[in-house]
Amino acid sequence: MIIQKIFINTFGGLSNREIDFQEGMNIILGPNESGKSTVYNAIKNTLFTPSKLTPARFRKQMGHFIPVGGGDTIEISIHFKSWGNKYILSRRWGASVLSSLTLPDGSVLTADDAIQDVIRECLQVPEGTCKTVLMTYQSGLARTVRDIQESRETIESLGDLLRKAVMEMDGISVDLLRAKIEESYNGFFGRWDIDGNYPEGNRGIENPWVMGVGSITKLFYEKEKAMKALEAAAKYERDLDDLNKRISEHARELKGAESYVKNNKILKDDAVKRRQIEAELKGIDLEYEKLEKVNKEWPVAESKINDINKKIPQLEKKEERLKKEREEAESYQKAKALLDQYNRVKKKKEALNQANKHLENVVTLSDEDLNRIRTTFNNKNNLEASLSAGKLWAKFSAKKDIELEIQKGLEERLRIKTRKGEPFDFQADGRFMLSHPEWELEVKSGEVNYEQISEEYKKVKSNIHKLLQKFNVKSLEEAEALNRSYNAALADIKKAKSNLEEELGGLTYEEIKDKVNRLQVQEPGRSLEDILNELAATRAEIQTIKRGLGELEKKLQEYVKDYGNQAKLVERLGELALDRKNNRESLSKLNPLPAEIDDADQFISEYEAVENRLKELTQKHNKLIQERIRLEAQAPDRSVEEIERDLNEAKSRFNAELKKGMAIAKIKETMEALLEEMDSATYKRLEDDVSEFLQKMTGGRYQAVDMKESVPSGFHRKDGVVMPYDFLSTGTKDVLGIALRLAITKQFLGKKQGFVIMDDPLVDLDPDRQSKAANTIKEFAQSKQVILLTCHPSHAKLLGGNLIELNL
Question: 806, 29 in Cβ contact below 8 A?
């Protein structure tokens, strides 16, 4: 068997984890608690632990593998191959259990025993040997010898394997003797489980063995077949009795239904007639009531039509009078609106006249005039500003009292008096001049042309004087005020003119005045609103009366259409009265309903239900009769008593054959005991293989091993000393464990495919032995699959192969 893949759905701390394996060396590397041991236990339990466990065994064996994250189910699948054929093994333990083995042909086994049979065939190694030798847990190397000592299955299986093919004893082949005894044994016990005293795999008569069946198994199936035949015959008699009982019960129910139908047939027919007559009576009553109502309404409708036809002309005359009154009121309203417009026009024309008179009293100072005045003042200011750019400061001090004239900038001359010794200081813009009868002093700023500025300044002042005099103002501010008053008067005229034109609406004042003078209308006696309300009410009344007239005329047309005239209607009423009388007489002649029945419909429904039930019972009774005919055709060839005799004979033959077989089993057991004594050199090949592996891994320190059956007893050191097992160091015991397991695996598997699982086998070895052991394991992996688990990256590097990393 080669393991190709394991998928762990939920197992311990792992979930949804898929691991692929290769032939040869496979290394599962991961730190502690990353899941290496979980993978090891997942493989072992999937191969060997059935899914159906008792609660106590589940808690003990699988309880600590319940998923860490929660849940109550463990589930694993393993893909493996054997002799080139592929298999898929799935197990589920816990709340939901499953065992499933998909075979190479696609068929599926679900029984645990059948699955284990296939696994044993694929492993080529007994289950106990596989658990003890081929699958090494982390601390198991040092326990290898003790594990093998405690596993009798391993010791016995290994002994059978290693025993010589032929042992001659006085010219008799031991293996041939054993083959003869085995042949006889198998002839009796083929496919028979002695301990269970039942065919292997619990395969009874429902799923019997076909190949390799011994006489005991064959007679057991014959006994079981007779037992089945007895059960079938007994079941036939029970089924026939049950069917006859059902036929009798249906016959009684059928008879009751037939009696009810026969006794109530006449009552049912009368009930049907009663229902029909009552329905006709109901229709007659409804029609009579309707015609009676029409007979009363017909003359009333005709009278109302006559009244309406008289009233409509009166209302129409009133409508015409109101329309004329409305026209007069509307004409007055139009004239009054024109007169009101004329009065508004007069007021707005007067407002325009007043605005024009106001303008006549306002000095005309336009925006253009104001701009001219402002420009002249700006020029004056600019000239003054130009002169002020050459600012002068002077200080004058006289030796005696003196009288002078002074002119500063563009200012007028001033006369001043100075006192002796009193200084006189002043500022001037651009120029100043001091004048004395005896002298003149003129000082100018070098930055301005005073003569030019002075000349221009005189002209500007003259222009300002003329402009202010023209508009009779003294300053720019007064000119601006006059301009505002003039503009306001113009705005008032414009507004009054706009209001007048808007009111005129495209006419002239004279045209509106002429229209007013030609008005000749009188004021109505009431308002237009009152007239319109009465006119609307009159029109609504006319429409309502006409609509009512239409409905009445339509109703009379329907009466005439349905009945011709009122006389025919009365005649029809008489016919209906006669029909009602006749139907009531017919009802009185019918059989009355049973006292417990309230109405005809109820009785008819009950009768028809029994009648339908009678049909169903008749059909079912016929089917039961047909079923009895078919069942009687399937009657067994022999009676229960005859089959019981056959069963007793089959039991006797089976017990006799089982007794013979047990005698052969005893002979086989005795022969095996004798062969055990003769197997003196059985374990020589195993001893040689263990010695070879041990020598490689210890670097020749240990040369040979003494074996007691499959258990080493002494170890020959290179210096000739023989070491007992208990004196070996822990590291040497681990090396021995590896050697012994590899050797036993080699003997069991030979050239067949197989696997070995080791959990950290190098952990307790020194670096030198780690290297040598790694080389030995790698060499072994060239012919067998090795799955090795370790938490040491250095060990993984030594071993090489397919690296599978697990992380926390």
Answer: yes
Cβ–Cβ < 8 Å for 685, 747: yes
Q: Which of 803, 746, 733, 744 is nearest to 779 (CA)?
A: 746
pLDDT at 173 over 60: no
| Range from 39-48, 128-137, 574-583 carrying the lowest mean pLDDT | 128-137
Assigned token pair, 452: 């030019």
SS3 of 219-264: HHHHHHHHHHHHHHHHHHHHHHHHHHHHHHHHHHHHHHHHHHHHHC
Q: Which residue has the tokens 């198994």?
A: 217
Closest by CA position to 115, among listed 131, 132, 98: 98
pLDDT tens-digit profile of 317-339?
988 888 887 887 777 777 777 77
CA distances from 601 to 25, 261, 270, 276, 524 (A): 91, 16, 12, 11, 79
Integer angstrom CA distances of residue 196 from 192, 219, 364, 407, 652: 8, 16, 145, 156, 20
- H/E element, 104: none
| Token pair for 718 | 């290179």
CA distances, 494 to each of 352, 483, 486 (Å):
8, 17, 13
Q: How far, CA to CA in Å, does 332 sit from each of 326, 504, 523, 535?
A: 10, 20, 6, 18
Q: In angstroms, how far is CA 396 from the centroid of its own chain?
A: 108
**526-540 burial code (b ≥16 CB/10 A, e <16):** eeeeebeebbeebbe
Task: Scan for tokens 């200084």, then name that residue.
Answer: 423
Q: Lowest-confidence range among 337-351, 365-379, 565-579?
A: 337-351
Mean pLDDT, range 786-803, rounded to an integer:
92
What is the 8-class DSSP label of residue 761? Answer: T
d(CA 259, CA 87): 71
pLDDT of residue 24: 93
| Angstrom distance (rounded) from CA 27 to CA 5 | 14
Sheet with 702-708, side-by-side order of all strands: 702-708, 711-717, 722-724
Mean pLDDT for 777-798 is 91
Instruction: Please check the confidence at residue 677 and state whether its pLDDT lies above 60.
Output: no
User: Within 13 A of 478's CA, how many CA atoms are on the CB side?
Assistant: 10
Confidence of residue 119 (pLDDT cuts 50, 70, 90): very high
Alpha-carbon Rg for the chain in angstroms: 69
Selection from 15, 7, 89 nearest residue 51 by Cα: 89
Does residue 523 have a pLDDT over 80?
no
Contact criterion met (CB below 8 Å) for 432 and 409: yes
pTM of the entire structure?
Answer: 0.40
Using CA atoms in the order 201, 203, 207, 209, what is the torsion angle rounded to 10 degrees?
A: 80
Q: Distance between CA 767 and CA 774 in Å, rounded?
A: 10
- The percent of the chain in helix, strand and coil, each rounded to the nearest 5, is 60, 15, 25
Question: What residue has token string 């600590």?
Answer: 64
Q: Please name which of 158, 84, 13 lies closest in space to residue 710, comparing C-alpha atoms.
A: 158
Grade residue 44 by pLDDT with cuts at 50, 70 and 90: very high
pLDDT tens track for 684-739: 777 788 888 888 888 888 888 877 656 677 778 888 888 887 788 878 888 888 88
